[in-house]
Amino acid sequence: MPALTALAWDPSLEVGNPVIDADHKETVEQLAALAAVDDAGFPALFAAFADHLREHLAREEELMVTYGFPPYPIHKHEHDRVRLELEGVEKRLAAGNLMLARGYVREVVPEWFINHKNTMDAATAAWIRSRGG
Ligand SMILES: [Fe+2]
Ligand SMILES: [Fe+2]
């Protein structure tokens, strides 16, 4: 499977909600930056990526609550899983495991992002549109 980090942001990645799409664009750009940065610069960029990803997930949850998205608990549960996974990688990186963190942003996150965007995020955006948002 080609890595998402090999791609630039493209409008074909949009789900049709401006808040979600703006966060997704930022995530994709951060993944590309992480793939290109040297080892010395990696930890700071990873910290910024992790902070933004948590904000991105929280903003989607806020939208789901605002618009009464029925499968909110399922989407929230998946975000909780990602937050836990992210915390684990942050701890391993703080302990010096750069290779693990590089593999996470090069392979694990891009594959998760595309699948998650095409399913739960797309369904959330469609629901918000159906409710006039
Ligand atoms: Fe998302
Ligand atoms: Fe999501």
Indicate the topology.
Elements: H1 18-36, H2 42-66, H3 72-94, H4 98-130
The structure holds fe (ii) ion (2 copies).
Structure description:
- By secondary structure, the chain is mainly α.
- The chain has a single domain (4-130), classed as Four Helix Bundle (Hemerythrin (Met), subunit A) (Up-down Bundle), CATH 1.20.120.
- The protein is 75% helix and 0% strand.
- The chain has four helices and no strands.
- It has helices at residues 18-36, 42-66, 72-94, 98-130.
- Helix 1 runs antiparallel to helix 4 (98-130), helix 2 (42-66) packs parallel to helix 4 (98-130) and helix 3 packs antiparallel against helix 4.
- The longest helix is centred in the C-terminal third of the chain and has 33 residues, at 98-130.
- The radius of gyration is 15 Å and the shape is globular.
- It starts with 17 loop residues before the first helix and ends with a helix.
- Bound molecules: fe (ii) ion (FE2) (2 copies).
- One fe (ii) ion binds next to helix 1, helix 2 and helix 4.
